[in-house]
Each structure stands twice: as C-alpha cells, then as structure tokens.
Amino acid sequence: MTHRFRFRVPVDDEEHWFEVTDGGRGQVVRQITFRGSAGVPVVAVETDELALTRQACGDWGVQLYEVVYGRPAREPVVEPPEARAVDPHAFDVTWGRARAYRQCEVRHDSGPLPVGTRLTGTFTVSPWGAGVTGVFVDVGLPAPGFVDAAILLRAGCRWPVEGTPAEFEVVDLRVGRSHPQIRLRPTAVPPHGEPWPRPGPR
Known about the structure:
Blueprint: E1 2-9, E2 14-21, E3 28-35, E4 40-46, H1 47-69, E5 84-85, H2 88-104, E6 118-123, E7 134-138, E8 145-148, H3 149-155, E9 165-174, E10 181-186
Parallel strand pairs: 8-10
Antiparallel strand pairs: 1-2, 1-5, 2-3, 3-4, 6-7, 6-9, 7-8, 9-10
C-alpha cells in the first residue's frame, strides 16, 4: 500500500508530490517536484528505477539518471501538516507529464556525458539486422551507445558492419528500467558505396 501527498515550499518556490510506502517511514516510491510559477518539472524520480540504474552502472549511472530526471529528496520524507492528499489517478497523470517533460523537453547538457560530447567507438552487432531499428556502439563506457536507423538511412550510407570504428556525438540520454543508453549520431558518414571514415586523431 502507498500514500500520496503534495505540499509547497514557498522559500524554495517549489511544490513536491510524493508517493511513499505506508508505515510512517517515509520511504519514497516516486517523487515529482515543480519549480516556479510556471510549474516546471525539475524532478521525476522512481526509487526502484534509480536503484536498478545504480546496480547496472554504479555511481556513473546515477549521475546520468539525475541529469535526466533530477535529484531525489533524502529519505525519510516527513509529510508536513499542510500537505494535501493526492488520489492515485491524479498522481499518475501528473507523473506521466513530468516524465515526458524531463525526457523530451530538457536538454541534457550537464553531468558526466553532456549532449554534444564527442566519443570514439565501434559499431557492434545489430540485433534486428541491417536497416532495422538501429545499431549499438561500444564506446568503452558502462552504458552502450545507440545510433537510430533513421540517421543512417537518411544519410544513404552503407550499413556499418560489426567492428567499424567511427566518431560520434552524444545527442540524447535514455535512462529507465532497462540499461541506460547513450543516443549517438556519427560525426561523418561515407558517400554511398564507400567505406566508413576512420575516426581522426584526438
């Protein structure tokens, strides 16, 4: 069983929404925090999801997670007397909007791997086959890189085979219940029918 409530902190110009476990221990399941008169979502954290990210990628993964979804409050969370109860449906709708905003509307240009970072790596096997979905990239980090198929198809270049080296630019970060993923685009692609350019000296 869980309990949901919200309250404002005027001195911080923030409103916090919490979903916590019953029992009075203040263990957070999900947290949403809005800032300012416009109600901009600055936190949309799920505790179990964050724990899975830590398990998969350690503190580096936690830093990525907090870039995308914000930094959670320290536990235990105490419900203040002025807090207002939130029904499950209202919490879920608000949660979905806050998550979508943090995923799609925020430029993730801080933390250990800001958008725009240049990386070298090698294409690995595409589980879906050439021309479908995309292809993973080994960039020597705890999380894999991924190039969307649309980027390669628009370029009209030859689909990269396993082990092809290239230079990439970070275009987005995806963090969720699965392993974190670094979304990439090659900084250069070959003309149709020609081999891939090798990454230049750094």
